[in-house]
Each structure stands twice: as C-alpha cells, then as structure tokens.
Amino acid sequence: MPNVIEDKDVFAYVDHTLLAPTASWDDIRQLCDDGISFATASVCLPPCFVRQAKDYLRAQGSPLPVCTVIAFPNGYATSAAKVFEAQDALHNGADEIDMVVNIGALKAGRDGFVLDEIKAVKRACGTHVLKVIVETCLLTEDEKVRACRIVTDSGADFIKTSTGFSSGGATAADIGLFAAHVGPGVRIKAAGGIASFADAKQFLSLGASRLGTSRIVRLAKKGGY
C-alpha cells in the first residue's frame, strides 16, 4: 500500500459491491462493466448471479475476480449449509467468499463452535480467498477481540467488519482494533457505510487492505474524485 494514498489508488482495494435483494441482471452486468473500467479488486454480488457474471467477464476477456456472500446477512445458517453454499459458489466460478459468522454463537462464548465452522468453510474454499464477516456493530469490545483470535486461528484470509445490512458499518476504531489483534497473515476488510474517498483512504491508512463499498465507483462516475 502506498504511503500516500491518492484517490486513483483506492479502486485497487475496492470490492465493488451490489447485494440489494432487488438487483437484476442488468444491474449486475453494469457492476461488472464498472469493475472492469475502474480496475477494482473484485465485484461482490449475490450467489445467484455468480455463474452469469463469471461467464460475462470471461466473454469480455477480463480476469476481474468474482466475490460472493455466504449465510448473508444474518449468519445463522447451519455449518453444513454454509459449506454447501461455499462449494456451490465456487463450482459456479466464484473466486472469493465472504461468509457471515454465527453471531449468536460468538456472543454466547461458543468460540470453539465458531472456529470449527470457519475452518470447515475454509476447507471448502481451499486456496480461494475466504473473508469472515463478524458484524462489529453487534459486538462488544471483548467479542471483537475474541473474533480476531478466532479468525486468526481458523486460517481464513480476511476479517471483515460488516455486512452493511445491520445497524452500523465500518468504523476507524474497529479497523484499529483489528489491526492490533489479528495475527500475521490475516488481512482486514472494511465494509458498510464507506461514503467517500476520504473514508476509504482513512481505512486503508489504518490497516485495511480491502474495502467493501458500492459508493466509491458511483462517486468516481459522477466526478467525485
């Protein structure tokens, strides 16, 4: 990551995202076109569009990675269902998986269960990137620290702040906390409420290396950088 992050540098860290339940194929195709145009890190989209998006990107000759979500947004699917969802998404061409943890289990102190579940999904992912969404707005400080330890021990690639569908999104304090408590090799994704290039650059400067956002590209298209 450059020491001084310019607006033009931000796109390389962006998972350009559209997860609205009303999303149509026309919307997803535009997401892919924008991801290509701005050279984003990936496009993040609903599982039902993974194969269509992958085929479309291949037809454009684009290597842009396709990211999708598992047990989204509540995280309370069974472990077996999460594993199946991940396997199905990968079979359809997904390159990266963002899964939601069982938040109730984490809050209840069932750290072993949460760890085993993430490990099972990571086994299904193999060498594909797995990002673990812990929904920080629903957690206490202690629970966030425990989440950092669990994700580190699981072998997952990223810890991610938020779905963007709960009561809050990424905060500077949470990115700082993650940076202080995750182990070596675990990267940080800030997501939810990233509304400006200033927000994006702040999170990157604090230690995030991926940003989940639908707004940055929209701002750029409107001349907002």
N-to-C CA distance: 19 Å
Count, helices: 10
How much of the sequence lies in strands comes to 15-25%
Instruction: Write down how many β-strands occur, each being a DSSP E stretch of 2 or more residues.
Output: 8
Across the major sheet, the strand order is: 1-2-3-4-5-6-7-8
Helix content: 40-55%
Radius of gyration: 16 Å
N-to-C SSE string, H for helix and E for strand: HEHEHEHEHHEHEHEHEH
Shape: globular
Largest sheet: 8 strands, parallel, barrel
Low-confidence stretches: none
User: What is the averaged pLDDT score?
Assistant: 96
Which structural class best describes the helix and strand composition?
alpha/beta
Gist of the model:
This protein has 225 residues and is α/β, with parallel strands linked by helices. It has ten helices and eight strands.
What does this protein look like?
By secondary structure, this protein is an alpha/beta fold. It contains ten helices and eight strands. The protein has helices at 7-10, 25-38, 50-59, 79-91, 103-107, 111-125, 141-154, 172-181, 197-206, 215-221, and strands at residues 14-17, 42-45, 66-70, 96-100, 129-133, 158-160, 187-191, 210-213. Strands 1-2-3-4-5-6-7-8 form an eight-stranded parallel β-barrel, surrounded by eight helices. Helix 2 (25-38) packs across helix 3 (50-59) and helix 4 (79-91) runs parallel beside helix 6 (111-125). The longest helix has 15 residues, at 111-125.
